[in-house]
């Protein structure tokens, strides 16, 4: 069928809205009519080829929509179901079967390879392949084919225009906190970076009952917003030494938990140094392949800290996304405050506003 999609053609170049051909869904796939899609920093870094997904490509990986057709082997979704799309995973490797599909042995191939695992592409233009299956979905398209496995059914009255980011940016920050760090009531956490991922982590920490929540960034307006949303302390690390400030705020002991959403090497070092004895820090910010960060193994050995590398909040989307929706509905996870909507044709403005920091989480409406 003919569909409309935003195509990434070259690094640091605007996406081009084109008419493409979408193939038929495979037996294990559904065709989804996209209602909305979030824009995530990872779309921009793949457009810019930090990860070598072949261009031209349809990116987009925070889609939400309505099932339009189902493949012959799909038993758990039907036409008309509302779905939020998550990252893809094989479902049969050791990580998938033990509940950690974000570490699927074939994660790269399923999410960044630009094709289905069998090498076929869902999109073509005049017979030429256009990379598809980005994060198993390529949601910057009016319609797309995804494996039923990575579509999460939501309630018929769910606000689809809002829910796409639960499939990546919001799940990443909140999952790193709720599934990996697990701060408890009355505990402390420092979060570096107050973008969508960092603020989602902050909202999750508040929901979990943490009472010392220190947000670190270099943009004053973002820190101000973090405070409005519930940060107990904010630190501008361009003006102040973040490690010293965190130690001061915590009476010298450091924070029990920390999250680096920047992927900037010196920030990763700050995170490790701001942890309390036996504290737990996690990195979710993406850096170019080959990036190294200084880590003082001499001093930190005796600290007993743990550092985790976390993909997509280590979440099982079909379990975790409904939990986030329940928290949101009860007013305990107001992630809608991070969202600003754009028309699909304004996708390049949405990218620019995300880049400049003007918008925390852009969502495109189709
Ligand atoms: P964002 O750009 O909105 O937020 C990043 C924030 O970090 C900004 O507010 C920026 O001002 C701040 N920052 C930059 N340099 C800093 C520094 N030196 N010190 C302090 N703060 C600094 O991005 P986002 O959407 O929140 O995404 C954050 C990161 O997470 C990106 O790298 C993205 O690619 C990555 N990501 C990873 C996963 C995963 O599975 N691990 C999933 C989604 C996104
Ligand atoms: Zn993402």
From TrEMBL:
Record SMART domains: PKS_ER
Chain segments annotated as transmembrane: 189-216
Keywords, ordered alphabetically: Membrane, Metal-binding, Oxidoreductase, Transmembrane, Transmembrane helix, Zinc
Enoyl reductase (ER) domain segment(s): 12-364
Cofactor(s) the protein requires to work: Zn(2+)
Gene3D superfamilies membership: Medium-chain alcohol dehydrogenases, catalytic domain (3.90.180.10), NAD(P)-binding Rossmann-like Domain (3.40.50.720)
Pfam families: ADH_N, ADH_zinc_N
InterPro entries: ADH-like_C (IPR013149), ADH-like_N (IPR013154), ADH_Zn_CS (IPR002328), ER (IPR020843), GroES-like_sf (IPR011032), NAD(P)-bd_dom_sf (IPR036291)
SUPFAM superfamilies (UniProt xref): GroES-like, NAD(P)-binding Rossmann-fold domains
GO MF annotation list: oxidoreductase activity; zinc ion binding
Family: Belongs to the zinc-containing alcohol dehydrogenase family.
UniProt-recorded name of the protein: Aryl-alcohol dehydrogenase
């Amino acid at each position: 069928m003919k569909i409309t999609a935003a195509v990434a053609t070259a690094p640091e170049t605007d996406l081009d809205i084109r008419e493409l051909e979408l193939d038929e869904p495979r037996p294990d796939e559904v065709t989804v009519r996209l209602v909305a899609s979030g824009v995530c920093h990872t779309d921009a870094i793949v457009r810019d080829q930090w990860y070598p997904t072949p261009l031209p490509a349809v990116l987009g990986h925070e889609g939400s929509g309505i099932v339009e057709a189902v493949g012959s082997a799909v038993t758990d979704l039907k036409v008309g179901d509302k779905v939020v799309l998550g990252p893809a995973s094989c479902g049969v490797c050791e990580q998938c079967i033990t509940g950690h599909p974000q570490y699927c042995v074939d994660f790269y191939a399923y999410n960044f390879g630009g094709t289905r695992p069998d090498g076929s592409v869902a999109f073509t233009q005049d017979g030429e392949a256009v990379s598809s299956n980005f994060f198993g979905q390529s949601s910057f398209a009016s319609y797309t084919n995804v494996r039923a496995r990575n579509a999460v059914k939501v309630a018929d009255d769910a606000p689809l225009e809002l829910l796409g980011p639960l499939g990546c940016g919001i799940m990443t920050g909140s999952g790193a906190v709720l599934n990996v760090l697990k701060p408890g009531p009355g505990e402390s956490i420092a979060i570096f970076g107050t973008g969508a991922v960092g603020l989602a982590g902050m909202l999750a920490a508040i929901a979990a009952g943490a009472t010392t929540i220190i947000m670190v960034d270099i943009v004053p307006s973002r820190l101000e917003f973090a405070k409005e949303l519930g940060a107990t302390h904010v630190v501008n690390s361009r003006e102040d030494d973040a490690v010293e400030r965190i130690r001061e705020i915590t009476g010298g002991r450091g924070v029990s938990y920390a999250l680096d959403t920047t992927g900037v090497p010196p920030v990763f070092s700050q995170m490790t140094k701001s942890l309390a004895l036996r504290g737990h820090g996690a990195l979710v910010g993406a850096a170019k392949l080959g990036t190294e960060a200084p880590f003082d193994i001499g001093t930190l050995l005796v600290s007993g800290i743990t550092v985790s590398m976390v993909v997509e909040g280590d979440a099982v989307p079909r379990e975790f996304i409904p939990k986030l929706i329940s928290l949101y509905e009860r007013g305990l996870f107001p992630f809608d405050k991070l969202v600003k909507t754009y028309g699909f044709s304004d996708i390049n403005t949405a990218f620019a506003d995300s880049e400049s920091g003007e918008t925390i989480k852009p969502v495109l409406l189709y």
